[in-house]
Automatic annotation (TrEMBL):
InterPro entries: Cation-dep_OMT, SAM-dependent_MTases_sf, SAM_O-MeTrfase. Gene3D superfamilies: Vaccinia Virus protein VP39 (3.40.50.150). Pfam families: Methyltransf_3. This is Caffeoyl-CoA O-methyltransferase. GO terms for molecular function: caffeoyl-CoA O-methyltransferase activity; metal ion binding. Belongs to the class I-like SAM-binding methyltransferase superfamily. Cation-dependent O-methyltransferase family. It is an enzyme of class 2 (transferase). Its EC number is 2.1.1.104. Pathway: Aromatic compound metabolism; phenylpropanoid biosynthesis.
Length: 247
């Protein structure tokens, strides 16, 4: 169990969750959530992976601990068994998924970069859940196209987590709506895009934030207008939009 002291491992006592700090109006409130609900209940392998990932130069990409906790609980609530993840990085959300699924659960995990997945893999193996993961290196879109063409994957996924190239989310949605089962859920991550979705036009945004913002805005509009799904946009992590397929 992590203690308050442990959560204060940072010199100034503040959390080290990356990339998500500013969405809650109060950083102290976020720290409170982490210390009271998230860190004390975080499974040991997830803590280990979070700490290993924190040392990696691209750690801003990792899923935050509170979002990892949310995904883990959500998957249990919907009794997910057959899942997909697009965008793995070192595997924090993947591990939170793998730990939530039953022993015979499955995760098709897609990422263009296997090297980063291999940072987390020994921890995932040690946790005894690696057998649930089918990792495929390469761009996700052609894999989705193959599955659709194949025909046997239509409506087969209980849950799909999308956390990869934001400029392709609309393209993913066009395919995933076919692959997720009716009643199943797709989660699109980073839909509040560091709060930039409400930034004024002249706001000093980082280059990549500005570039992807228009794609995120377009996605958010498209999801709200899509009558095949029911949605809920949650301010967890960097914003996650849950879409339940209804037809
Ligand atoms: N879910 C991960 C976690 O919990 O740490 C974070 C994923 S990170 C934000 C985005 C990932 O998407 C990167 O690992 C990147 O290599 C991957 N990616 C980018 N473009 C991709 C594509 N076209 N197909 C599959 N993966 C892609
Ligand atoms: Ca993310």
């Amino acid at each position: 169990m992590a203690t308050n002291g442990e959560a204060k491992q940072n010199q100034n006592g503040r959390h080290q969750e990356v990339g998500h700090k500013s969405l809650l109006q109060s950083d102290a409130l976020y720290q409170y959530i982490l210390e009271t609900s998230v860190y004390p209940t975080e499974p040991a392998p997830m803590k280990e992976l979070r700490e290993v990932t924190a040392k990696h130069p691209w750690n801003i990409m990792t899923t935050s601990a509170d979002e990892g906790q949310f995904l883990n609980l959500l998957l249990k609530l919907i009794n997910a068994k057959n899942t997909m993840e697009i965008g793995v990085y070192t595997g924090y959300s993947l591990l939170s998924t793998a730990l939530a699924l039953p022993h015979d659960g499955k995760i098709l995990a897609l990422d263009i970069n296997r090297e980063n997945y291999e940072i987390g893999l020994p921890i995932i193996q040690k946790a005894g859940v690696a057998h649930k993961i089918d990792f495929r290196e390469g761009p996700a879109l052609p894999v989705l196209d193959e599955m659709i063409e194949d025909g046997q994957y239509h409506g087969t996924f209980d849950f799909i987590f999308v956390d990869a190239d934001k400029d392709n989310y609309i393209n993913y949605h066009k395919r995933l709506i076919d692959l997720v089962k009716v009643g199943g859920v797709i989660g699109y991550d980073n839909t509040l895009w560091n709060g930039s979705v409400v930034a004024p036009p002249d706001a000093p945004l980082r280059k990549y934030v500005r570039y992807y913002r228009d794609f995120v805005l377009e996605l958010n509009k498209a999801l709200a207008a899509d009558s095949r799904i029911e949605i809920c946009m949650l301010p967890v992590g960097d914003g996650i939009t849950l879409c339940r397929r209804i037809s």
